[in-house]
Structure formats: C-alpha cells, structure tokens
Amino acid sequence: MFETISSNLQLQMVFKLILAMLLGVIIGMERKRWKKPAGGRTFMLISLGSCLFTLVSLESAMLLTTGVPVDPTRIASNILTGIGFIGAGVIMHKADKVEGVTSAAAIWMTAAIGMAVAFNLYLLAVAATILAEIGLKFSYATRKFLEHNHDNQPPLFYKKEDEEPPAI
Fold first, then answer.
1. Beta carbons within 10 angstroms of residue 72's beta carbon
2. 166 has a pLDDT exceeding 80
3. What string of H, E and C letters represents the secondary structure of the chain?
4. What's the mean per-residue pLDDT of the chain?
5. Which of 15, 64, 87, 116 could bond 104 through an S-S bridge, CB–CB 3.0 to 4.6 Å?
C-alpha cells in the first residue's frame, strides 16, 4: 500500500528543509537585532515547520492517491491558520499603542517562504527573503530619518512620553 520514498528524494527534501531553515534564520536574526519578541530560533522553526508540513502534504497526496483526486494544498492552507495564532501571540497592546504587528507579518512571510521552498520555488523564496530584509531595513531607516528633528521641525512620529504633538 505505502511505497517507500527513494533516498534521492529524501535527500532533496532534507535540502529543502535546510534551505527553509536558513532563510527563516535570516529574517529572524534581523528581528532579534532590534530586540523584537520573536527572533532567529522562532523564525527558523516557523519556516522549517511550514516547509515540512508542505512536503508531507505533497508526498502524502502522491502516495495515498488511489484514483481519487487529492488536493495537496489543503494542509498547506491550514498552515496559515496556525501561523495566525502564533502571530496573534506576538501582538501586544500596551497603553496607547500596539506592538508586534510587524513581527507577526514577518512570521506570516516566513511561513510563506518555507512553503515556497517546499514547492521547489527556490528563487522565489530567496528573493522574498531578500525583499523582506530590504523592506524591514528600509522601514527602520525611514522611521529614524522621519523621527529625527531636522532644523527644529516637529517629528512625524511621537513617542509615548510626548504629552501632546508640537504645534506646526
């Protein structure tokens, strides 16, 4: 009933897991650098887990097909539900602001990267990782620039300790 998966195919799967893990670590290290609630290990596990769930989904669909069409994307789509719970756990409401939304979005993105690796979309996964890194770094640089008080101009972002925005 169950066919064994060839050792060559298993090695390809291990390569995919390693690549997904490394891409997840890249995004996670950036988040850790900024002392965000989730870091390298969390992102590594999310990317690795989403890749593994997708691989298991794909392989089980091929092994268990008995003439009845099986949708291998069903497990992959449920990954997003689980990631939603993890992302929600990272988001915190403190006083008058919400923190962790970007980390939650990065977790969501990392799961997608792991799934892309499992579907053999290596270039897409690497490009998405690079673009996510650029986007996160650009966001910090832009915010730092906009928060900097140029020529006594009021900042565009206000800190909690600011009682009221300065008059423009």
1. 17
2. no
3. CCCCCCHHHHHHHHHHHHHHHHHHHHHHHHHHHCCCCCCHHHHHHHHHHHHHHHHHHHHHHHHHCCCCCCCCHHHHHHHHHHHHHHHHHHCEEECCEEECHHHHHHHHHHHHHHHHHHCCCHHHHHHHHHHHHHHHHHHHHHHHHHHCCHHHCCCCCCCCCCCCCCCC
4. 82
5. 87
